[in-house]
Design goal:
This protein is α/β, with parallel strands linked by helices. The chain has eight helices and nine strands.
């Protein structure tokens, strides 16, 4: 039987969102991304959404208690079939998540760490290009435009976002490594962590993840 309560870890650019969406669509699991949940809560005008909106409009970070309230509001609707995409991000959040799940008589089945070498992540993060007119996304290496700098869809100019430049990308990866190394040790100690090679084709990574979720690999690394 496929694992029903899954957490994806992985650096920016590792493909967490893409793989989470694929697995959730195939196996009818709820895709829980805190960014998406916050935006939905704000739009719906829930109590947690109003508090989140206040924090975002003031330019501050959304506090952990608001994040957890938004997350568990959604969890109450999806029961025990979900994929957590990139949350928690640090050890204190992981411990709080475990406590709140336990109070709901739930626990994680598996934690999948998508492992991608740093230089591959830099290529992924810095290669993105966006159309100024229609907002379409391209990638210089994997999904280039037919004419460099020109959108295939509307003919608009494409550009690189400021936070996709190399210096910013390396800083994001440095912050991620500092915050999440303790997370990996934490989940490894609980016997939940499985490392999957994310430096493969999208389909191959999805296949390796499915093997993990089906119980064919557990508590070890899966490198294709």
């Amino acid at each position: 039987m496929i694992s029903r309560r899954v957490l994806f870890l992985g650096a920016p650019g590792a493909g967490k969102g893409t793989q989470a969406q694929r697995i959730c669509a195939e196996d009818s699991l709820a895709h829980l991304s805190t960014g998406d949940l916050l935006r939905a809560a704000v739009k719906a005008g829930t109590d947690a959404g109003k508090r989140a909106q206040s924090a975002m409009e003031s330019g501050g970070l959304v506090q952990d208690d608001i994040l957890f309230d938004v997350l568990f509001d959604r969890l109450s609707e999806v029961s025990d079939a979900f994929v957590l995409d990139g949350f928690p991000r640090n050890l204190s959040q992981a411990e709080e998540l475990a406590d709140r799940l336990n109070r709901s008589n739930l626990s994680l089945d598996v934690v999948i760490d998508l492992d991608v070498p740093e230089e591959a992540l830099i290529r992924r993060l810095t290669g993105r290009r966006i159309c100024k007119l229609c907002g379409s996304n391209f990638h210089q290496e994997w999904a280039p435009t037919a004419v460099e700098g020109v959108c295939d869809h509307c003919g608009g100019d494409t550009y690189q976002r400021a936070d996709d430049d190399e210096a910013t990308a390396r800083h994001r990866l440095s912050v991620y490594q500092k915050e999440t190394e303790p997370l990996k040790r934490y989940y490894e100690g609980l016997g939940l962590l499985v490392t999957v090679n994310g430096d493969q084709s999208i389909d191959r990574v999805t296949n390796d993840i499915r093997e993990v979720l089906l119980g064919e690999v557990s508590g070890e690394s899966k490198h294709g």
